[in-house]
Amino acid sequence: MKFKLFRISISGKKNQEKAKEVSGQPKKMYPLTPALLEQSKQVWKSDLASLSNAKLVEKFNAQVGNRGWGTARSMYLDCLRKEIRKRNFDSRILFDLDSSGNITAFKLGKKVMLKRGRLVLSTPKQKRFSWSWLKEIFGNKIRGNKTK
Which of 59, 90, 94, 138 fits a disulfide with 118 by CB distance 3.0 to 4.6 angstroms? Predict the structure, then answer.
């Protein structure tokens, strides 16, 4: 499943000249229009609705740490937020709610994982230290294993 990507740029001679410099050919630029944004939003809604819970969590985790911002991304995150809320798992960890239950914040700070119908913070896996690379360099002389 792929999302439709649109190249969005401010029109003008400078941008067209920069596009020519990069590829040697003029690139097709699309102005940011409400119709284009609405079309993208419909595509995102249908694509996110068709995902499994695990894949939806993966899509959320892909947005964690993404510092870019713009109109299209804000609309995508709105679709993602609404789809997460529709699902039948506990997603309270991702939202700040006011006293009436309305969302005041969508937290994109940390990755999560789905465990027993509930989203929990994902802890990074600790890599076990391996002596194999030292053995390749020094042979079996590590940890008192001396060869004669």
Answer: 90
Biggest distance spanned by C-alpha atoms of the chain:
77
Q: What is the DSSP string of the chain?
A: -------B---SHHHHHHHHHHHSSPPP-B---HHHHHHHHHHHHHHHHTS-HHHHHHHHHHHTT-----HHHHHHHHHHHHHHHHSSSB-GGGEEE-TTS-EEEE--SS-EEEETTEEEEPPPPPPPP-SHHHHHHHTT-GGG----
**Per-residue pLDDT, 122:** 87
Rounded CA gap, 140 and 129, in Å? 17
Confidence at residue 26, expressed as pLDDT on a 0 to 100 scale: 57
Distance, in Å, from the CA atom of 13 to the CA atom of 44, rounded to the nearest integer, reads 32
Q: Give the start-to-end residue ranges of the domains of the chain.
A: 1-31, 32-144
The CA-to-CA distance between both ends of the chain, in Å, stands at: 59
The pLDDT value given to residue 59: 95
Residue spans of the chain under pLDDT 70: 1-30, 125-131, 133-135, 139-148
